[in-house]
Amino acid sequence: MPPSITILVPVYLNEKNLPTTIPKLLDILDRIPHITGKLVFVDDGSNDTSYSILQNAATEDSRIHVLRLSQNFGAHIALLAGCNYISSDCIAVIMADLQDPAELILEMVRMWQKGNKIIIAERIHRDDDVMTHFFAKIFWWTIRTFGNTKIPKGGFDFILFDKEVQKIICTSRKRNSHFMLQIIHTGFEFMTLPYIRMKRITGKSQWNFRKKTKLFIDSVYSFTMLPIYLIIMNCVLTFILGFNLLLIACTLILLGIYIQRFFEQKSTRPLYTISEKTN
User: Which residue(s) pair with 66 in the sheet?
Assistant: First the structure.
């Protein structure tokens, strides 16, 4: 049998993007030689027409598979749900807004065929608004400085990885994490492809301040030692300066987040629920 690829796309309120995204990705599959392919869209509890658009597309092309989650679990869980569903030789992950050039998947596949387990599309510049650019810069600087220095400076959320990596990712039971950083955390060597992230043309980004803050906290607590360093620093300063309400409050907050995450991780409730499947 020929090797296979699945393009995994998380979807949340992307009704304006999908009419362009679906045919674009199908065209990419057609252009990959000697490899069978399919698309897996994971609707993360959208309350617009995203799911109906995907359903209609799936009835017209059997290569399109759609999972609908029962509620909005977040991008990390949506990708994990898709990863658990897929059985291909490699998986490419791209966002539904196609701010990342889908054509790079063709080169990623060629690099994978040469034996590379992980291929990252590295952003060397992003044509986003000032606040988005600022948050991304702070986020990736923090992860690189206090976590893994090998992570690309510009960050990434466009990636292709081998089924051996998928097997490890699918064992994860982390509720509050970062899917892309988990892939890096598997320890496999990775190759990078530089590109410029394009400006969003249609639709509105759902990454509001609350979601960005949660992603930052999840990533910092899961993949860096920064909270521990801050707790130690606060304890030292309290010892030197004496009782300081602000330092003690900050320490309790940092510890409280650890405790909350510990009990949440011990929860027996399912990570996600798939309410509907198409194809």
Answer: 41, 278
